[in-house]
Every structure is written in C-alpha cells, then in structure tokens.
Amino acid sequence: MGDDELAQIRANRMAEMQSQQGGGGDQQQKMQEKAKQMEDMKNGILSQILDQKARARLNTMMIAKPEKGRQVEAMLCQMAQTGQLGGKLGDEELKGLLNRMTSGQATSKVKFDRRRAAMDSDDDDLDDL
Q1: Which residues contact residue 70 at a Cβ distance below 8 angstroms, ignoring those fewer than 6 apart?
Q2: Does 104 have pLDDT greater than 80?
Q3: Which contacts of 93-97 are long-range, i.e. CB under 8 A and separated by 24 or more positions?
Q4: E-assigned strands of the chain?
Q5: How many Cβ atoms are within 10 Å of 50's Cβ, its own excluded?
Q6: What span, in angstroms and rounded, lies between the C-alpha atoms of 27 and 25?
Q7: Taking residues 96-118, what's their average pLDDT?
Q8: How many of the other CB atoms lie within 10 Å of CB of 90?
C-alpha cells in the first residue's frame, strides 16, 4: 500500500465517522421532537380531563413529589384512553383518586424507644437530693 492509498482510506474513514456523528445529531433531534410531541399530547389529555383546580393540584404534586406526579399523570392518561373517566375530574374527585392510590401503599412508621433516652446522665444529679 502506498501513501496515496492510505491517505484515501483515512479520508474515507474520516468522512464515514463525520456522517455518523451528523446522523446521530439528527437522531437525537428526532428523539427530542418525539418527546416534545408526547409531552404536548399528555398535556392535551390532562387539560381535557381535569378542571383548573385539579390541574393546579397535580402541578403542585409534580413540584413536591415528581415521581408520584408522573405516576398519577400516567394513570389519568390511561384511564382517559380506556374510557374510564366520564367527564372532567374536579379537585375533590382527584383527591379521592389520590387517596385510593395511596391507601394501597404501606405507610412508614417511626418507632422511638424511650427506654434508652431515660438512661440519661441527668438522673445522677437527682440522687444527691
């Protein structure tokens, strides 16, 4: 192989790599467009099935607990697509739905053992009285 052949192979390989990087940018842009389209569709469905107060409650939940908010959004969209929702949900209906959703989950409890706290060095001061 001569230098000319190696230079030609390098140039072809460089052009191939550049086209792959450019193609990757197009693919990334398509994925961003698709994600934006899905987000718009989800917002459209939610605006159709929730009134203003319920939508405000959902937005507040998204800020406080994003993971739970996404679960509720997905559940509401699924319910709307399967026809389980008759009309627009109000704030009270959304509260009831959230209560039903959280009632299935186990609540965490904190148990405080007071016996250890009672074994304090302050008790020694009272012995001298």
Answers
A1: 62
A2: no
A3: 93/54, 94/50, 94/54, 94/57, 94/58, 95/57, 97/72
A4: none
A5: 24
A6: 5
A7: 74
A8: 15
